[in-house]
Design a protein that fits this description.
mainly alpha, Four Helix Bundle (Hemerythrin (Met), subunit A), 6 helices, 2 strands, 73% helix, 4% strand
Length: 138
């Protein structure tokens, strides 16, 4: 599958670059991270923290899409967008985080604290990398 396939199916639309939306998404992502940093990691909060860190990462990828003139209606499409940018390793990690989040949100799966700790550290690094490579001028 390719990012172009999502455009052809209509789950991604090409339009005008939206820098204001990109800025807003960056701010939302930052706020998500800040709010989760103030929440202690426990067995009760682990799933919520993981899902929210994924959302913060998704918002950064969506900001890059908005800056590039894409409106994305499929979380899976973000994986292929990252691959198109040459970010294959990040794309694979993003897809893994997406599947974890889907398990939490749609199937009630729980995640252990240690996995969340490792994943959130990885997500913060990925967010930093993507922001510096693709959003430094926003």
């Amino acid at each position: 599958m390719r990012f172009q396939d999502f455009i052809e199916r209509g789950t991604v639309r090409k339009g005008e670059r939206d820098i204001q939306l990109a800025k807003s998404l960056i701010k939302m992502s930052e706020n998500q991270i800040k709010s989760m940093q103030s929440l202690g990691l426990t067995d009760v909060t682990a799933s919520t923290i993981m899902a929210t860190y994924y959302e913060a990462l998704r918002e950064i990828v969506e900001a890059i899409c908005a800056k590039s003139g894409y409106k994305v209606y499929s979380h899976e499409a973000f994986t292929y967008f990252l691959k198109e940018l040459g970010e294959d390793v990040i794309a694979e990690k993003f897809d893994r985080f997406r599947k974890i989040r889907n398990g939490i949100n749609y199937y009630g799966k729980q995640i252990d604290k240690e996995s969340v700790k490792t994943n959130k550290e990885d997500i913060v690094k990925i967010i930093g990398s993507l922001k510096s490579k693709f959003l430094s001028d926003v």
